[in-house]
Amino acid sequence: METLEKAPIRASAPVDTLAAALAAFASIPVEENPPWLKPIRAQARKSLDALGFPTTRHEEWRFTNIAPLLQLPLHPAASNGRQLTAADVAPFRMETDGLCLVFVDGWFREDLSSAPQQKGGLLLASLRAALAGSAPGLEAHLTRHAAFTESFFTALNTAFFHDGAFVSVPAGLIVEKPVQLLYLATASQQGAATQNRTLVLAGKGGSLKIVETYASLHESAHFTNAVTELVLDAEARVEHCRLQNENGRAFHVSTVQAVQAQGSQWTSHSIATGARLARNQVQTLLNAQGAEAVLNGLYLGRHEQLIDHHTVVDHAQPHCQSHEFYHGVLADRSHGVFNGKIFVRPDAQKTNAKQTNRNLLLSGDASIDTKPQLEIFADDVKCTHGATIGQLNDEALFYLRARGIGLAQARRMLIRAFANDVVERVTIAPAREHLDRLLQDRFADTTV
Amino acid sequence: MLEIRNLSAGVTGKEILKGLSLSVQPGEVHAIMGPNGSGKSTLAGVLAGRSEYAVTGGGVTFNGADLLEMKPEERARAGVFLAFQYPVEIPGVNSTYFLKAALNECRKARHEEELDAVEFLALVKNKTKLLELDPALLNRPVNEGFSGGEKKRNEIFQMAVLEPKLAILDETDSGLDIDALRIVAGGVNKLRRPDNATLVITHYQRLLNYIVPDFVHVLANGRIVKSGGKELALELEKRGYDWILEGVASGNNGKA
User: Fold this and answer.
1) Partners of residue A395 in chain B, C-beta under 8 Å
2) Which residue in the set B73, B75, B87 is minimally distant from A405, CB to CB?
3) Closest Cα in chain A to B155
4) Nearest one of A346, A352, A338, A345 to A293, comparing CA atoms
5) Which residue from A359, A345, A388, A350 is spatially nearest to A301, judged by alpha carbons?
6) Which residues of chain B neighbour A422 with C-beta distances below 8 Å?
C-alpha cells in the first residue's frame, strides 16, 4: 500500500532556498567547459532533481540531519573574495617551500601557490586551467568515478564546480615531496558556497603523497562541498591525507572516491576536527587483484559539532586487502556518526578486510552512532569488524595523577594517546607535524 | 610527618577502616601487615586519594597539612608516593614523556627548576642502574608489555626519580620471584634517608627480610590491633594471624 509518508515531504521554505541556490550556482559562467563535460553536467543537474535533498528518511542520512544547511542563504562564493597575502596563507601551509596549490573560496590563486615545473613530468594544475587545455587523462577520469547518480552532493558538485586541482603522476615517477592542496574559505557572507573538485591520477608504478587541507579564515557560516577522485594505476602508491578544520559554523560535505588497479596501494587519512556539520564519504573500489587500501580516520567533536564518516570499501576482485581504523573523540554535546560498508563481490575470493571503529566519549551528552555494514558474497574471505565506545580509563587517570600530573593534563595525555593511534599512521612528515601542532592546540583549550 | 587519627573509611555501604591511628616520623620504616580483607589496600588507597573510598571519620595530616583535602596530584606533589599493587598499563603514553611530566610537576610544586630533556635523561640513566631496569623499557608506553617483575621495578624506579617524602609500597612483593624481590628491596633501601619515610604494606613477612622495618603493625578488621618491632613480623610468619585475631575477638585487644 502506498502511503503518504513515502513521498518526499519537504517544507516549502527550504525548497525555495534550495531552488534559489541552485539557480545561483547555475549562473556562474562555465563557457570554458570542454564539450565532453557539458552533457555530464546536465545529467548531474537531472540527478539533483531525481535524488532530492537528503533527509533523515534516507538510510544514508539517518543520523545526520543536513536540513539546517538550507537555512543559510546559499550562493556561490565570489572569485574576488578577500584579498589575501602569502602571510595570511602561511599558517595553513605544511611547508613554506613545499609544493602547494592554494584555492581561495574555490578559485585557484596562482600568486599564493608554489608549483614550479617539476622534473619528470608531475602535473600540478588548477582544474580550470587544465579544462581549458587538453591535459591527458582528464576526459577519461574527471567525473567518471564519483557516482553523481547516487549522491545529491556529488551531483551538486559535478553540476557546478568551476575550479579545483588536477594532479597527475606519470608512470614510474616517485614524487618525493608531498603535495598540498590548500582550500581556504574567506568570504564573510553567510551561505557562501564552494564546490571544490580534485582529480588525482597516479600512473603505473607512480608514487605520491598528497594532503588536502580545508580551513576558514573567518567565522561566518559557509558551505564547502568537495569531491576528490583518485585513480591508481597498477602498482601505484598514493598516501592521501585530508585535514578538515573549518570554522565551527561551517557545513562541510565531501566525497573521496578512489579506484585501484592491480597491486596498487592507497592509504587514506581523514582527519576531521572542524565545521558545525561535517559529512565525509570515503570510498574505494578495489578493482583488480592485489590492491590494498588503508583507511584511517580521526574525528574530534566538541560543542554541538556533528561529524559523520561514511566509508565504502568495495572488494570487486580477488586477493585484495583493506584495513580500516577510525577513531573518534567526542566532547560536550557533539555527535559522531560512523558507517563502514565493506562489500565483497562474488568474485572477490581471498579477500582480507578488517574494520575497527573506536570512540571515546568525554561527556555524558556526547553521542556516537556507529554501524559496520558488511555485505559478503564470496565464501573464501576473511572479514573482521569491531566497534567500541568508552570513556577515559579511570585507573589510568588515577595512576597519572598519583604521580603528580593534574587532572586536566592527565585527561589530555590519555586523549592524545588515543588519537595518536591514528596520527602515527600518517607517514607524510610535514603533515604529521602540522597535525601534531593542530592537536596540541586543540587539546590545550579542550574543556576536559 | 604522617599522622593518621581514628580514621574510618570505606566504600558505599561498607566500612572497611574502623578507627585506625598511626604516626610515622621522618627516617622511619613502618610495615603494615594483616590478613586478606583487613583493610591494607584501602589504607593505601585512602592515603593516595582514590575517589572510590569515602572517609567517614577521623583525619590524616601530612607535614601538618590536611591530606584528605588534597587531590591525588597535590598529594604526589607534596611528596606522597604510592607504589601500586597493580601498576596500570597506559597504551600510547610514552614512559619517558610521562615521567618527565610527573617529575616537573613535582619540581614546580617544590619551587625547583624544571628539568630539560638532557638533564632528565641523565637522571633517568642513573636511576635505571639502581633498579637494574632495562632503559629500553622507557621507550615503551607506560607499563605496556612489561612483565610482572618489570612493572614492580618500574614503580620503585619512578619513586627513585620522584624522590618522595613518604613512600607507600602496596603489596610490592606480590608476584615477585626472589631475585626481583632482592632488586626491588635493594632499591628501596638505597632510597632511605633520614628525611623520608616508608610505609610497607604486605601480607607476607618475606619482604621484611630485605626492607627491615622499625615498626610492624598488624591490621585487622580495619584497625591496628597490635604494634611492635621487626620481631613481630617474624612471630607472625611463625604463628600466622589467628592468635592475634582470636585475641581481638576475646576483647583483650591483641595483647595475647
Assistant:
1) 88
2) B73
3) A403
4) A352
5) A359
6) none
pLDDT digits (tens, 9 = 90+) for A388-399: 999 999 999 999
What is the predicted pLDDT for the residue at A123?
93
Amino acid at B245: L
| The pLDDT of residue A18 | 82
Contact predicate A141/A201, CB 8 Å: yes
Q: At A100, phi and psi to the nearest 5?
A: -150, 125
Distance from CA of B105 to the nearest CA of A (A): 6
Average pLDDT, chain A: 91
Split at pLDDT 50, 70, 90, the class of A126 is: very high
Q: For position A158, what pLDDT does the model report? A: 96
| Residues A59, A53: Cα–Cα separation, whole Å | 13
CATH number for B2-249 (one of 3.40.50.970, 3.30.470.20, 2.60.40.3600, 3.40.50.300): it is: 3.40.50.300
How confident is the model over B71-102, as pLDDT tens digits? 999 999 999 999 999 999 999 999 999 999 99
Mutate to test the interface with B, among A401, A424, A436 (most CBs of B within 10 A): A401
Q: What is the pTM of this model?
A: 0.87
Of all residues in chain B, the percent with pLDDT exceeding 90 is: 66
Who among B82, B93, B162 is closest to A417 (CB)? B93
Judging by beta carbons within 10 Å of its beta carbon (0-12, 13-18, 19+), is residue A7 exposed, middle or buried? exposed
Give the C-alpha distances (Å, rounded to integers) separating B129 from B119, B139, B184, B188, B193: 16, 16, 12, 13, 19
Which residue shows C-alpha cell 573521496?
A256
> ipTM of the predicted structure?
0.94
